[in-house]
Design a protein that fits this description.
Helix content: 25-40%
Order of helices and strands: HHEEEEHEEHEE
Oligomer: single chain
Structural class: alpha+beta
Strand order of the largest sheet: 1-2-3-4-7-8-6-5
Largest sheet: 8 strands, mixed, barrel
Strand content: 15-25%
Length: 242
């Protein structure tokens, strides 16, 4: 009898915990959507179809909400339409939203060691994998060549201008593989890196890279393909001003 009561008590506790967790996730998701919708309105963010001909996003107003906002990313065919922030480390925005409120969905954020103007040879941008596809939950689409062919580039919008990022490589790899590298000894080292990540890609692209001038963006998020806790999605692209 005591064993049965103990089992029922444990089961009840687990059930309550699960229910609380579900409601917490729903609250976080809804709150995140509200924040992002508000920022889209504040920044006067236009649809991607108008990017080539629109004026800049109003980053001055966005920075009044959070001065850490350094850009905006849009990937057609996904839910990715978010500000990019840069923190003092790579931990804070894992669980804080764009208004600095705690949120398990976090934010899309630039590596804190990178230059805000995307002038580094390789700029990493991070975001959570989510089951509902928000944040970077749909980066997995780039693992399919058919999706790439329909969406061969994405956009990075900044206070200094708008950029198109042509995808050159997409694959999964370990979190701390040699792909996770943003610092290079020289241009020859950088060239070897580009050649290496292109070989890792699940499909080839015909995008040329000028190692003397071109910079790249690397999107980085958890992957659940193999079940490994250290597997990550890597999406690399050449960034060029529109």
């Amino acid at each position: 009898m005591k064993l049965k009561l103990c089992f029922l008590f444990i089961f009840s506790c687990v059930l309550v915990f699960c229910v609380i967790n579900i409601f917490h996730n729903i609250y976080s998701e809804n709150k995140q959507e509200e924040i992002i919708d508000s920022l889209i309105e504040i920044g006067n963010v236009k649809p991607s179809s108008e990017i080539d001909k629109i004026s800049q996003i109003d980053f001055s107003k966005l920075k009044e909400v959070n001065n850490a906002i350094v850009g905006w990313i849009i990937i057609d065919g996904t839910q990715v339409n978010y500000p990019i922030v840069k923190g003092k480390d790579n931990s804070y925005y894992l669980n804080h939203s764009y208004d600095k409120s705690y949120n398990s969905y976090g934010s899309i954020f630039m590596d804190y060691r990178s230059n805000e103007n995307f002038s580094d040879l390789n700029t990493f941008i991070y975001g959570h994998y989510t089951s509902n596809g928000s944040m970077f939950g749909e980066l997995k689409k780039y693992m399919e060549e058919s999706f790439y062919k329909e969406h061969p580039f994405f956009y990075i919008l900044t206070p200094n201008g708008n950029y198109k990022v042509d995808v050159i490589s997409a694959y999964t790899d370990d979190a701390l593989s040699s792909s996770y590298n943003a610092k290079f000894n020289d241009l020859n080292d950088y060239q070897r890196y580009i050649e290496k990540i292109r070989l890792k890609s699940r499909y080839s692209t015909d995008i040329s890279v000028n190692y003397n001038f071109d910079k790249i963006i690397s999107l980085y998020s958890c992957s659940h393909e193999s079940g490994s806790k250290t597997e990550r999605y890597f999406i690399h692209g050449v960034i060029r001003k529109i």
